Amino acid sequence: MKKVMQGPDRRQVLTGTLASAAALATASWFKPALAQAYPNRPIRFICPWPAGGTADTTMRALCRVASAELGQPIAVENRAGAAGMIGAASNATAQPDGYTIGQIPLSVTRFSQLGSFAHDPRSDFTFIARTAGQTFGIAVRADSRFKTIQEVVTEAKAKPDTVTYATSGVAGQTHIGMEEFSYAAKVKMSHVPFKGGADALQGVLGGHVEILADSSSWAPLVRDGRMRLLATWSEQRLAGFPDVPTLKESGYNVVMQAPNGVGAPKGLDPAITAKLREVFRKAALSAEHTDTCNRLDMVVMYLDGNDYQKFVAQNYEEEKVIIERLKLKELLSKS
Known about the structure:
By secondary structure, the chain is of the alpha/beta class.
């Protein structure tokens, strides 16, 4: 007689059915439960800039509010270097568990295309919130012969490459801004890159370079009369310097800010992502963060995570044009 293969008995079927049901039930409640339990220990926040700078100061204010909302400490860790790319890389390569987050410098969109950042900023982060933007300006010593931005343009046209300006480094936001300004004004100036904004400031104060292009490091010196602010790069005049024109209203269509944002490694659980987005929305719009930004002449520029990701993707495409026009790869190879 042929041996007939028997199918699973009723007990096996019942056991398999119950196991499947248990798995489905686990999947349905696990993620909400995970978000509810998160965080149950301190969170590390990577700031890609030195302690005490404008970005670091605002990020610490942001984290204080977020910490209170989450009920856990948020420890700010400064991982400075390579124009912010060291800290950004540490964030991108961390475990996506919600216990490592950090600031994403907008310049990742440029440096990833220049080969200085080995990640794709459009896809290698979980975007939480855009928070605030650094404002940039062009400043000179109080005893400088330049009284207006038009005087800078006039001399730069008459004597190409003789007017010098200091920035925090080749291909950084301030260098790009000055190159965009030079392009709009149809002039050529001589770039003097430094290792950071503080060094660039000292280069101008020491009389080694004529013009400083930087974020609001110049603000206290302008207020106490040691420096003169010639123009800002924002869309509107700064509230703290209402008499100083923007480049745009001076006739040069250049608007540049560097929005700071908060992100985590890609692959973060959606429930944890949603929780962090809500917490950092409250933190970005809080009185403490807003007051800190106002004190540093920065602007709150909040966007939720989804819109922030779209903003970064758009900026990535815009950087392609800038990199090609300014031949930044060639400039970096020579620096």
